[in-house]
């Protein structure tokens, strides 16, 4: 009987399909800060400042940042949130977005978030800039092996998407775009049905909604969020000969043109909690249940 119980447990666990694991982060302000990189990993300075914007929801259920990890191009262990105190030196490549910016000396994603003048020149003119949010915590991998530059031991980039329990409007607000032709970056942002963004041009048309922040803000209505299945990737894409991408915040989507890194860095405004994926809870709970049944059986036999 002991063997049967253990065997049933193995069968139940093996029946769960292999897939990416997730960990979720919420914010009491329902606000997240995102920085994007518009150059391929083989040629970029990887400062993640080409487009800086916030993602916010005013709904009572809030918006959740869902980070992925697992195999392939993903980080191999659960990512975490880190504070600005984790950035021990400027422009040294640790974490992944903390590289010397080609736009100005003090203009990578972390300097835009945390630093005051003169060590913050996150504007299209290179002028001094106030920090975006000195209390925000950024998402990064734990330092485990992952393919591509600016990853692995350097607290590498992490794949992610956003999710809502109850669909409510989501607002994208431009914070800055400071490289190349800013208007190109401001018009190149999309929200796409999670996992369906860049398979083809047809899929982009069918599964993505433009959230161009050229005018300063863009809003996904509650109805549009419902259309996207209440969960959406971010897509950064400008077609044409001088374009870039498509870059998806979930690089496992077929058609992402650069899976070596995630072209999005993200930080959480005053993070509230982290939540493991339901499958992980099921595995732990199922194991405890099986152990309890086994102990009960042993007590009965000994009696």
> What number of structural domains do the residues give?
1
Query: Which regions have little confidence, pLDDT < 50, spanning 5+ residues?
Result: 1-18, 279-303
- Give a count of the beta strands, DSSP E runs of length 2 or more: 15
Note the total helix count. Answer: 6
Bin the helical content. 10-25%
Q: What does the radius of gyration come to?
A: 21 Å
Percentage of residues in strands? 25-35%
Mean residue pLDDT: 81
Q: What general outline do the C-alpha atoms trace?
A: globular
Overall SS class: alpha+beta
Order of helices and strands: HEEEEEHEEEHEHEEHEEEEH
User: Distance between the terminal alpha carbons, to the nearest Å?
Assistant: 16 Å
Biggest sheet, open or closed, and with what strands and sense? 8 strands, antiparallel
Question: What's the helix and strand layout?
Answer:
Blueprint: H1 2-14, E1 21-26, E2 31-36, E3 51-57, E4 63-69, E5 80-82, H2 109-114, E6 137-140, E7 159-164, E8 170-176, H3 182-186, E9 189-193, H4 201-207, E10 208-210, E11 217-220, H5 222-227, E12 231-238, E13 244-248, E14 264-268, E15 273-276, H6 278-302
Antiparallel strand pairs: 1-4, 1-15, 2-3, 2-14, 3-8, 4-7, 5-6, 6-14, 7-12, 8-11, 9-10, 9-12, 12-13
Helix pairs in contact: 1-6
Overview of this protein structure:
- There is one protein chain.
- The chain contains 6 helices and 15 strands.
- It has 303 residues and is of the alpha+beta class.
- It has one domain (24-288).
- Strands 1, 4, 7, 9, 10, 12, 13 and 15 form an 8-stranded antiparallel beta sheet that branches.
- Helix 1 runs antiparallel to helix 6.
- It is globular.
